[in-house]
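Hi, here's the filled form for the chain we discussed.

Project: internal
Contact: R.S.
Residues: 691
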Amino acid sequence: MASTEPDTSPPAHRTPAQEVQAALLARPASEERRMADAIRALAIDAVEAAKSGHPGMPMGMADAATVLFTKFLKYDAADPRWPDRDRFVLSAGHGSMLLYALLHLTGHAGMGTEELRRFRQLHSPAAGHPEFGEHPAIETTTGPLGQGIATAAGMAIAERHLAARFGKSLVDHRTWVIVSDGDLQEGISHEAASLAGHLQLEKLTVLWDDNHVSIDGDTALSFSEDVLRRFAAYGWATRRVDGHDHAAVSAALAAAARSRKPSIIACRTIIGFGAPRKAGTAASHGSPLGAEEAAAAKSALGWNHPPFEVPEGLRERWEAAGRRSAGTRRTWLKRLARHPQGAEFERAMAGRLPDAWHEPLAALRAAAVEGKPKLATRVASQRALEALVPAVPEMVGGSADLTGSNNTNVKGIPAIAPGNFAGRFVHYGVREHGMAAAMNGMALHGGIIPYSGTFLVFADYLRPALRLAALMRQRVIHVLTHDSIGLGEDGPTHQPIEHLASLRAMPNLFVFRPADLVETAECWELAVKRADGPAVLALTRQALPTLRADAGENRCARGGYILAEAEAGPRRATLIATGSEVSLAMAARAALEADGIGTAVVSLPCWELFAAQDAGYRGDVLGAPGVLRVGIEAASGFGWERWLGPDGVFIGMTGFGASAPAEDLFRHFGITPEAVVAVVRRAVPLLAPRS
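And the returned structure, exactly as it came back:
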C-alpha cells in the first residue's frame, strides 16, 4: 500500500537556491518568520483549493511583505479608505494571494477565511489578480505587468500635489510597490521609472522581488541588464538586500523613508520558499504546487495546521499590526475637523464637483452661438479648458510632449516640476503609456481629475492603461487630437483610421467626437461630470465652422441628435456624421434640399450615450424605415452598420491615408459634400414613395 505521507526528503540534486533555502530553514524560526509563514501557508492552501494560481511569488516575498505591513505601512484595517493612508500596490498582480493573505491576517473585513477558500472563484473578492472595487483595500487593478508601478507613480504625484495644495497636516503619506522581474521588463515600467526619477518622487518606494525566475525559466534567458544601475541612472536611490532577512529589509525600508529620491530595493528571494523540490524554479511560478509538494512545503516550514488555519497567537500579532496606525488615523481626523480647508479637501477626495462649476462652460457655449467662430476643435477644447480649469481646482492636465498641438495647457497654470508640486500641468514627455497609467494612479488616489493629450493615432501606445481605467471605472480624460486624415501632411503614420472603431469597442469608455465649439464644450462638461469611467475627446487639427444655433440644452448628452431636419419635404435621407464631417454633411444637405430631396443631418458625437437612449428616440433621430441613412466619417466604417442598417451607405476610409494637404486628401478619398450628394441622388429613386 502506497504511503500517504508527504515526501519531505531533499531532492537528489539541490539547486543553489534550494541549498540556501535549506540553510535558512535549518535555523530556529523567529516570531517574524512564523508570521511570514502564515502568508506562505495561506497562499499554498488557496492555490491548491482553486487548482490554479501563482504560489511562488507570495511564498518568496512573504518575509519582505511582513516587514512592510508590520513596521512601515501606514494603514488601519478598520478604515481601508482613510485618505491619508499609505498606498500599497502589488504590481506583480499574479501573486495576488500575497495581498489577500495580508488583508486577511491584518483583520480587514470582507477577506475572511471563506473568501480565501473561494480564491479565483466567481464573485469572490479574492480574484485571480487584484481587481479594484472587489475589496476596499485593493488600491488598483494589477495583472498586466508594469501597470502597477506606473500607476503607483501617479499616486505618488497625486500625494505630492495634494500636499502642496492642502498642506502636510492633511496629506503626508507614502506609496509602496512590490514588483516582479517581469514588471521591470515591460516598457511601461521604464517610462514610469524615468518620470518618477525626473520628478524626484521621494515618497515612492519599490520592492523588487529579485528571484531570477519567470514563467519560461531563469530570467537569464532574456534579462541580463544591471537593473539597479539603470534605476540609479533614472535618479533613484538603490539598495540590494537578502529578501528573507527581516532586519536587512527593515533597514532598507527605513533608508528609503529617509531618501530624497524614489527608492528601489532589490530583495533577493527564493520563489516558492519552503517547497523542497520546486523552490527556486519556474515550477512554483504559475501553477499549484500539487498536494504532495504542498504538504512537504508546510512540513519544511514547520507549519502543522489544517488548511486556512492560523494559530491564535500569530493571528493576534497580525491583527495588532492591522491596528498599529489606528491612533494616527484618529489624530488625523481631529486635524481634518478643524482644518480651514477640511471641507474642500473632503469634497475633492469624494469626487464631488464644486458648485456652479459648469456655468463658465454655459457662457462659452452662448458666446459661440452668438459669434460663430471657425475653430479647430482642439482649439475649441482649449477654450473649454480655460473655462473649466479655474472652476474645477482638482483638474490636473498634461501632455505627452505635444502641448502646443494638443492645446491642453491653460495660460497662467504652472507646471508640476521637481521640488514644485503646486502646479496643475504635467510634462509627461514622450511616454504615452506611462502617462495614461499615471493618470489612473492620480484618479485612484483621489482628489484629482486628470486629463492629458496626445495624437489620436498614439492611442495605440496608451490603450492598455486606458482599458484599465475603463475596467476600474476611473474618471480620466484623454484629449486625442489630429483625429483624421484632416491632419494632412504628416501622412499615414500619423493619420488615425481604425482608432475610433477600436476605442468604441472598449466597454465603459465614452468616445466624444464633437463638431464645433458648442459640442466641444458640451462634451467636456459630460466628460468631467462622469464619475464612473473614462472619456476620450477626438479633436481636429483643421478649423470647423460653428454649426449649432442653440446653446441652452446640452444636446450631446443624448449622444446624437437632429442638427437639421428635412425642410424640402418628407425626410428621404438622413446624413449621420461625427466631428469634422458634420459640416460636410450640412453642405451636402443644402445641395440636396435645393433639389427637393428632404434631408436631415444627425450629429452623433458619442455613440455610447446614443446607444443608451430608448429605441423610440433613436428611431426618431435616425429616421423611419425607408429613409436612406448615410454615415460620414473620415475613418474606418467598422461598426457603423449598427446605425445605418442593412441598406445604409458609409462614406469614409477603406485603407490608410496619405501625405498631402487636408483638403486634397478629402477630395482624393472621396469624402466630400459632392460624393454624399451623388450617393443620395442615386439611391433616392429606389426608395419607396413617401406619403
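Let me know if anything looks off before we file it.
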